[in-house]
Amino acid sequence: MLFLLLRMTWGNWTTVREFILVSFSTLSYELQALLFLLFLIIHLVTLMGNVLIILVTTADSALQSPMYFFLRNLAFLEIGFNLVIVPKMLATLILQDKTISFLGCAAQMYFFFFFGAAECCLLATMAYDRYIAICDPLRYPVIMSRKSCAQLAAASWFAGFPVATVQTTWIFSFPFCGPNRVNHFFCDSPPVIALVCADTSLFELEALTATVLFILFPFLLILGSYVRILATIFRMPSAEGKHKAFSTCSSHLLVVSLFYTTAILMYFRPRSNTSPEHKKMVSLSYTVVTPMLNPIIYSLRNNEVKAALRRIIGRTLSPRKL
């Protein structure tokens, strides 16, 4: 329904019916073929890794705590985020199919905003879970009950809808009068809004507000949570207790660092200081590389996940007793 309304609006305003994704067209075809192989491998590893996280945290009875419930939601988000961006990018590299329809561009941008905003909120929710587990362990089972976890996860997913709906509807209600070359490998808002032939200052103010609300504000919540967590850990009397407490949140802290470092570099730097090619490299970090690293980080740095994997593999490979 949303895109039907948009299409009625576009028909009266725009002369552009499709966009051309510049992607990595400045590189030679041979180098683009190598990038295709590299990104295809990363894409497959991302999908398999996140699916494995979902299966392990679902199948193993020892991984039914709130932390792994949120991790499972994060894996679903990473799969969606990756599928929105990477398949089209692979097509532009190997098939040289750089066109994307008006509706296709709008849909890609919508789900990019949706999964991105939802992931920011879910990472903040995961930080809150670790904060309660370490700073208020006695009340943890009550505060992070199954109902509370479901509500927090649902709120994180729902947070993506308003920002995606407002941003995408607003951008594609602008007139596009001529140039249709998007200097990026997907339909991100800055390179698309650069093609608009109208005053976009009000939209840019709204986009900055949305960026603060859905990137900076969750980041500050995460930062505040970890300040309290670290203060609690340092007050623990035993070295073993400190190590155990820190190990439960180190994976999440590393994932947050990777995600927010690249996101802040992308959306909080002045335009004049950042070239399009640099923006593409930064975008590759959080759209392609980070979703692949997340399941690796949670698998290799988490003893409970590694133990669960060994149990599942052992049950699968061992002969069944008659």
TrEMBL record:
Subcellular location: Cell membrane
PROSITE patterns: G_PROTEIN_RECEP_F1_1, G_PROTEIN_RECEP_F1_2
Membrane topology value: Multi-pass membrane protein
MF terms in GO: G protein-coupled receptor activity; olfactory receptor activity
Residues that span the membrane, as ranges: 33-57, 69-95, 107-128, 149-172, 208-231, 252-269, 281-300
A Pfam family hit: 7tm_4
Keywords: Cell membrane, G-protein coupled receptor, Membrane, Olfaction, Receptor, Sensory transduction, Transducer, Transmembrane, Transmembrane helix
G-protein coupled receptors family 1 profile domain span: 49-298
Gene Ontology CC: plasma membrane
Coiled coil ranges: none
Top-rank taxon: Eukaryota
Family: Belongs to the G-protein coupled receptor 1 family.
Protein name (Swiss-Prot/TrEMBL): Olfactory receptor
Gene: LOC101830608
